[in-house]
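Below is one such protein, fold included:
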Amino acid sequence: MQRAAARAAAWRLRRAPVARPAPLVAAAGAAAGAGGARSTQTSTRRRRRTSTAARPALEPQQQRGAASRAERAPRPADPPAPAPPPDPPAGAGLLLGAAPADPAFAAARGWVVFSDLHVSTKTVDTALQVLRVVHRAAADRGAGVLFLGAPHAAARRGAARAGAPRAVAPLAGGPPKLRRAAPRRAAGDFWDRRGDLPVVPLNRVQQELRSWEVPLLLLPGNHDQVDLGGQHHSLEPLTMAARAAHVFTHPTLYRDALWLPYRRDEAVLRGAIAQAKAAGPLKAIFGHADVLTARMNAAHQARDGLPPGLFPARVPVYLGHYHLPQTLPGSAITYVGSPFQVTSSEAGQQKRLLLLDEHWQAAGEVPLDVGRRFFTLSAPGASSGGASVTAGSDSDADAVGGALSDAASGSEGEGGGVPGSGGGGLALSPGAVGELLASGALRRGDVAHLRAEAEDGALLEVQRLLAAEGVQVQLHLRPPARAAPRIASAEQLSMAALLEQYAANTGMAPEVLALARQALQGLGSRGSDTPPHSHLQLSDVTVEGFGPFREPVTYPLAGRGVVAVTGRNEDDTAAASNGAGKTSLLTALLWAFKAPDGRGMTAADYVNEDSKRAAVTVTGTINGEPFELTRTVTGGRRPRSGLALSVGGEDLTCQEQRHTEDALRRLFSSALLPQTLVFTQEDLLRLLQSGDREFKEQLSCVVDTQAWDEAKEVSAAAITGLRQQLAAADVVAAQAAADAAAAADGAAAAAARAGAWEADRAAQLAQLEEVGVQCVRGLEAGVDAAAALQHELHAALAAAAARRGALEADQAAAAAAAAAAADAADAEAAALEERHRAELEQLQQRLLGGGGADGSLELPVFDESAVEARLAPLLAAEQALAARLAEQQGASQALRGQIAAVRARLARYSGITSGAPSGGARVAVAGAAAAAAGGRHAGGACGSPVCEQCLQPIDLQLYQRNLDGMAGEEAELQQQLAASREDEARLAAAHAAAQQDRGAAQQQHAAAAQEVRAARERLMQQQAEQQQRRAQAVEEMRRLEQRQRLEQQERQQRVWQEERRLQWELHELQQLTSQLQAADAQVASGLAAASERLQLPGGAAPARSCSFEGAAAAADDPAALEQAPQLCKRAGELSAALGQLADGVLSSRASRESLAGAVNPHASGVQALERGLAEQRRRVEETREQQEELTKQLSLWRRVDVAFGRTGVPSFILEDVLGELQAACSRHLGALAAGMALELSATSAKRTAPAAGKAPRAAKAAKAPAAPWDALAPAGAAAGLAVGGAAAAGAPPAPPPAHEVKEEISKIVRVRAAGGELRERSVAQLSGGEKKRVALALGLGFAELVAARSRLTSNVLVLDEVLEKLDEEGCACVAGLLKSLPYSSVFVVGQAGSFVTKEFACVDTVVKAGGAARVELGGGAAARA
């Protein structure tokens, strides 16, 4: 109920005709004009398309009645707000701001002041809590609200200029602002980032401000401004939401107080303060600015800004910008501070709201404790500043320090302490953390920095406890202690001492150490030369005809601070800043000093297209002496370059340019400029991704290793001489070895040939002996086989005789049986034929017995014409009823259409009276309703409904009569429709009955026709069956006669075949008998011939002969006769084999006798060849000894060369430098990426054990066979391979260990994972943004190393496109780091409209227009330039 009453009161107040303040009207008009002239009569359809986030602003409009909209209808759209005038130059009138005109500001009884709200997507909830506390504090005191610097969110430049952000803002015709007296407030840095405003936080802040009933004063902060001059800001959307709000865009005097918005040009602020002093006494000054000696936090103090003495004494000054609440000692300058802890650098700070009375004097404070807080918990022995690897910390997490107890008792100058918050020092243990959580000292949303030496169980338990309670954990571990250099103070030792230390660390062999000492004797005993020192201070650079700079342009370099350099290309519509010349302007420094700029361009490429000559002049001081350097080049086919150098008033330009170049390199150390003065993104990535050789070359520019290069030249010369001697020895040894091998091959070949001849003779004798024995054995077996074969032949002849008698008997019996079978078959056929003829005659008689006189069947007939005549009347009656039914249905449908039309007309006419009885709403009269009313409007009293088209009142009595007439017309049509439906139902019933009668008659006629067709089919089927049976009987008789003929033919065929078979068998048997007789005679002849050739004993042949004894027993065996052909074949083969075996026996005997008497023809030359071979082997042994001695010396000198090379003594010297570089890099990387660390090591682990079956690498390198001294491989670094007297005595040393250390610089990136553990990453595994951060930290560390080593120091640092691929947080970290670097000028080159133009206070713009580039200096640089 209370809420409803409050809403009703607020609605009545909004409707009050109060004039809008002029600035707010202009801002609202600009918001409406940003998207074109918008009509105040917004239709319902357009309101539905409005963003959901903006609906709260539109709801009051949707609730208003017709009278309110009618009042706004004739008012035209508000004109767009004009752009605010720029600040006049210093010295002119600067107090141009308009004072608040709303009476609510004058009625305020005090002020609630806050600053630096920093609204963003992440902090919007906390910011809303702060705004509610501020509003409640102001409302309770009847005070106004003052904001010293707007909340942090970025506004789009175009939207801010038009007075409206990209998010949906209240419409121009929104509710007027309240005029009654209410509290006010002031603030600064309202948004967290410059640029586009985030829509969700903007809508939520606007919704919160709509509920405020207090006036609001706003001073734009640096994060709230869009342009460099500060004329356009992102606070205008807040004024459209608040009831009474005013923004001081320009310096303004209001109520005897000076209001100073943030300005990058300090001259504007100085001039405004001076004019305000001259105008009269001031009661207070409000602003958003930097003041010298102010503290950013407990660890950092402002180094530049306005001096405190600039402000009037004893006049209170209230400022925003710094988050630490403080009052500068000895002054009346007070920083209000941020209302909550934004970053970890604010740990322990007590936040507040400042209370002022009506005369701007301090009246008290309101303590604040909202949002997240930052704490540091330290384990025993852990230093708060020792963390180099931090997980998830803010960009300035390094600044966290102090214990919780210290924070609770902090000094007043530091803003006091929040109970339980602070920097760290509390014991990091699960018990202590549990007590903090139980007491509420740590709460959900807080951030706890945990600092410890290493991860252990207690630390993991603490992380678990904090995470369970919703406390964010950021872990800081002390990095492991870096091992001491293997050679202490290496740069101060002499070369001989360094060599001895290196030999002791690596276990160098005595032979190698002796040679190394010998090599150093010629160089002398000296340490590294002192490198030149260059202290470079640049003043300005002038370019003419260089790149896009056609005309002379002088750019100041000294004392600029952090400057963003962007571009604007007005000649190319397809480019915003590309091609303007911003990179050319600053890389001209490298070109002037002839340092590589990484662009790969020739000298002529730098000449402007419209110029004949390019010139770059650099001025400044070198080691305190003023210098001027000018480099020129002419264009054309044959470009000519020039160089002029003067230092301390002395012209150092030489007649030959190369001598001037030498002086330039010597004085300015120009080779180091790409790593110390100008960093491009390619240079940074190249340094990070460089290999061992390239990285050591860069470090050699810092540490002088030239003496070791000379020593390496000595060892290289010795190696070259030994290689030449070894090559010559290899040629001699190869020739001797080739001769010895040829002699050995000849002797071996002769001996082999002699032995082969003897072996061949023995083999042949054995083979002949074996052939003779086999032939004799074959003859004996053949005689036995011949006897057995003769026996089988005699048995086969007996079986053939018996078979002949049996065949003749079978022939006579078959003839008698055939005659008897033929007679029996003839008698059976005659009987069967007689029986079939009788059956056929009987069937013919039955077929002729039925039917008519001629035997045919009588079929029934159906009359179709009579049936159709009976159905015609029924069909005609049905069609007539169907036509009448369709006509009646059409009439009913027409009546329904008339009723629908009447109802629609009645509904439209009735709609115009919505809300008429109350009289509080507008009446929209549609065209159809006006026509129904006759197009007339009768006069009526005041308050009658009004026509929307003609805006005339309507007579309600006439309107009611029209309604009654249309209702009566609808009732009459409903009655006609009911009667039509009844007629339609009767016709439908009659039509259905006619359809049923016609269907029944059609079914009866169909049944009669079906009976007639069935009877005809049965008669025809009977006749077809009888004819089929008769045809089957005739066919059966025909098949019987055919079968009898076939059987008779088959019997005759069988008899004939049997006679032919018997005759053929008799003939075959006679031929077989003849063959067997011939075979028996052949076997007997072969046996006789074999006995005669071999001169066998007289009784041998008769013993192996065979007779016909037993042949009669085999006559009854059928198998004997079947094998007769094979027996004949075997007889022929056996006879031929017996002859061949006999010839073989005689031939083998003759061959053995011939081989036994032969002599070896190769025995004479073997002894001569063996004597020559012994002489050649002696020569090979002599050359082998010489070759081994040279190989040993070469191997030793190679070890010396390794010791002098980049992986030897120089690597040990650079090890100490790597420690300094890593320390510098860690400091910068801690600010850029707190969760990452880069470790640099001079060595890396290497697997050097050779695989099984593979020779060591040193042995493979030698062309000759490996010598024992090849085992003396270099130990590398700290491998500890000791080679002593055993190696010198010739015994091979022990094999090297499986793992050795490789002298190669390794870059290991350690990343804190989500679980808190450290994980190693290679450079290639990093993302683009991570790689950019590590590369930038390494580059800055290298520049710091060069400066620390006094090689080259400079007052200028140039970073070209280094923010590319970095997210918004990463860019903010880079910006914070650059502000802390010890350079008087840092130039950051970036694209227009990017983070570069949003974060840095001073922005210079290179503008290219008309084919020529110029430079527009931003901020306060113009005065200094």
User: Anything to note?
Assistant: The chain has a mean pLDDT of 73. Residues 706-848 form the longest helix (143 residues).
